[in-house]
Amino acid sequence: MAGKSASGAAGDLAPLLLAKLREQVERAEHLLDRIPPGRLQWRPRAAALSLGELLSHLVECLAGFCAALCAAEPVRLAGLLRLRRRRRGQPIAVGEARRRLRGYWTRIEKGFALLNNRQLGRLLPTVFVPRGEPLLTILLGNLEHLLNHKHQLFIYLKLMGVSVTTRDLYQYLREPRGGHVSAFGLQHIPAGGHRRPGPGGGF
What we know:
Elements: H1 14-33, H2 51-72, H3 94-112, H4 117-120, E1 123-124, E2 133-134, H5 135-159, H6 166-169, E3 173-174, E4 180-181, E5 187-188
Antiparallel strand pairs: 1-2, 3-4, 4-5
Helix pairs in contact: 1-3, 1-5, 2-3, 2-5
C-alpha cells in the first residue's frame, strides 16, 4: 500500500504510530494476495472462523481506529464512521477485503493528520475502562488487535499449504552494505560477514 513516510515535528508521536500501522496494513494486503482461489470456506477446524469470515474480521480491525479517531474529533471526523461494521461478521471475498482495507486506510490517514501529542494523551471512555483511557492506549490496543488477526491469516495460509515465510509477515528494510535490517531493526549478517551493531546499537 502506497503512502508517505512518517513526518512531523520532533517528538510528534502520531506520524510514528501511523507509519507502523501503514506497514501492518500493507503486509495484510500482501497476505491477501497469497490466498489461493476458491478457499474462502476453508477453516482449520469446525468451530473456527472460515477464511472468508476471518477476512471480514481482519478488515473490521481498522474500524476500531476509525471509532477512536472519531471519538477524539467527533465534528471534523464524523465521516470516518461511514464504513464502520458494514456487513459485520459475514464472510467476504479477497477483492472486497482489499477495497475495504483501502477505504478504511484513507479515512485513518485523514484522522491521524489532525492528531498531536496533546490529543493522544486525552482520556476517552471505552467499554473496558468507562472512566477513560488515553487515546494513544486505545490506538495501540487496536494495533494489537490488527496484528493478532494478521498473524492468524498467516497461520491459515501455512495450514492450507501456501509457502509463506516471515518475509510475508514482516516488512524488511534493505541494508546497502550487505545483509538486511529486519522489521525489528536488528542487523542480519550476510554469509561469511561480521556482525555490526543495528540501529539500536545492541545487536
